């Protein structure tokens, strides 16, 4: 049997040999019905094809059918996919800047703010841009899950209840939070949450509550604690192969900018709607919902304050220069978007998309962005 590396190399060589073709691969490891795929990839691909008069056609591979989660960064760099979603936690050594800001998820847990702020950061911050270049990627846009909560097969109402509980965590700051409150972090992909809860190897899955539906967790979850344990946005929703991006005309890059602005907004509205729908259905089927007690809320606040020094130290160990300044630059963007989004109708996709265009994508030059 050929190794995964050999297979990637063969596919990459094939892709390189047909660089002038109009058909390209778009990769996402979530299922097609997930809000991060059905709009930002399936609908996006159709809109891009229409707007480029068929010059750019993406075939969407979902559910890990083209690239598994840990290989998506390498896969897009090598040309197996021309655009992909990538969860930065899988590659902390390759993406220390992305993981630095991704682990700052407790600074502001508003998913809309974090989606827009992480997008602007990834497109404009020089440390981030250098990191993308070093990995053979052109950053297209970010994302954010809805707030992470605890979905459990046993009641977790309080700080006392969380002691010793086995919590599925997304790694990084989430792992440290579990340890901070006396729980046991378990680092597994989201695709394994169901099995962990079903077999009892997990007590809770910490993730966005749409997972009650999108990962069928409502079958094995009996209670939920609404403590907002950050939200996930490390990596990118759209990362492009550099050779592919540079082969595009400025007009076609502008089409991608326009569609990414729209689906950055659309995804956030759809994700939150999916959460509300999934929670409502699970509650009607008997799931209990608990608010965190004050001791648990205080513990989270203490953790957020203490962990910032750890974020900076870890980033510096991985080679990030001036990590504290990079983090401060990101926090300024978060604060900026907190203000910009305060007066916008959060259910109006068109208004949110226009804000993303005006404040972010219109500031980029499609003739030069990604060509350095």
UniProtKB/TrEMBL annotation:
It comes from the Bacteria. It is found in: Periplasm. Coiled coil: none annotated. One of its GO terms (biological process) is transmembrane transport. InterPro entries: DctP_fam (IPR018389), TRAP_DctP_sf (IPR038404). CDD domains: PBP2_TRAP_DctP_like_1. Gene3D superfamilies: Bacterial extracellular solute-binding protein, family 7 (3.40.190.170). One of its GO terms (cellular component) is periplasmic space. Keywords: Periplasm, Signal, Transport. Residues 1-21 form the signal peptide. It holds the Pfam family DctP. NCBIfam families: TRAP_S1 (NF037995). Belongs to the bacterial solute-binding protein 7 family. This is TRAP-type C4-dicarboxylate transport system, substrate-binding protein.
